[in-house]
Amino acid sequence: MPANKKKEVEKIELSERQKFVLSAVIQSFIARGEPVSSRFIQDTSGIKASSATIRNTMAKLEKLGLIEHPHTSAGRQPTDLGYRVYLNSLIKLEELKPSEKNIIIRQLKNITDEAEILKIASNILSDITNKLSIAATPYLKNGVITKINLVLVAEKKVMLILSISDGLIRSLMIEMEIDINYAQLEAISSILNERLVGRPVSFLNTFVINEIENVTKGSFQGPIRIFTRSIMKLMSIADYENVEVSGTKNIVKQPEFAKIEDIEGMIEFIDDKKMLVHFLHERVNKKGVYITIGREHKMSILKTHSVITSNFNLGGVNGTIGVIGHTRMDYSKLISVVDYTSRIISQNWK
């Protein structure tokens, strides 16, 4: 939750009745998609209070900015702030069914390929939640370089293989402008490994690369420059290469996407890998399940949506999975699904 929103929420103090009514409004609105009246709460929630008392309580909640009157409706619906207060202190999470847990465990069992994990995890989330789901590759800048290999695959063509942390690998094919032989590649590989192995990927920057190039003399200086620049390029490419999005078909099933421009805007967002990964990178250091709601987002396309994410760990580096949907979503179920799936991924990789 953004820091400014946290301060705003901390200032709000609710009575037990206000907490009960706010929860009832939110749960009913999520389930039915219609503004909630005091009479409906009285008839369905089990509260021991008159309709007038409930109506008075709702008026106080509205004054606090937690619920609002949509148009001329007699009922109320939650605001982004109302959802935030509910999620921070009132929500009761739904326990996943054994069958749902078994699906997650079975499908992720014995999967050791990073790309396959992302694809399966994303599919699992969209299938169980009926929401748009996202899964992003581990953030390599948090990893440690373990080995650099240079493989001559053809004349003037070299494969650069970068090993990071526990089994994560990135590779790049390099077209050389000069002839290079096995002995030269072995010598250059030794220089790169000596300088870079054991260091975090975040250590790689222009200053470090220039330093390596400057201390290398003679005939190796040119090839070293090619390979060091290729490593930097590989890191920039890696930021955007492994992102999985599933459940695009679920967008049109949501009544909130009645307008074609809303559908187009969301599809444009998830099709832009750079934008999507940048958005997820901002969440990579968040602990546990992290939820952002409506106007808490900087991006205009997400102003009416909530995003629930959780980080998983693959050999010391983090990736992220989550779901995107309208603010009117079943938070109690979705939080549990996202959290459980991320924990299973992390456990399986150990």
What does this molecule look like?
The chain is α+β, with helices and mostly antiparallel strands. The chain folds into three domains: about 5-90, Orthogonal Bundle (Arc Repressor Mutant, subunit A); about 100-135 and about 240-350, GAF domain (Beta-Lactamase, 2-Layer Sandwich), CATH 3.30.450.40; about 140-240, Enolase-like, domain 1. About 50% of the residues lie in helices and about 20% in strands. It has 13 helices and ten strands. The chain has helices at about 5-10, 15-30, 40-45, 50-65, 80-90, 100-110, 115-130, 180-195, 205-215, 220-240, 260-270, 275-280, 330-350; strands at about 65-70, 75-80, 130-135, 145-155, 155-165, 170-175, 245, 290-295, 305-315, 315-325. The strands form three sheets. It has a five-stranded antiparallel β-sheet with strand order 7-3-10-9-8, with helices on both faces. A three-stranded antiparallel β-sheet has the order 4-5-6. Strand 5 and strand 6 (about 170-175) form a beta hairpin. The two termini are about 30 Å apart.
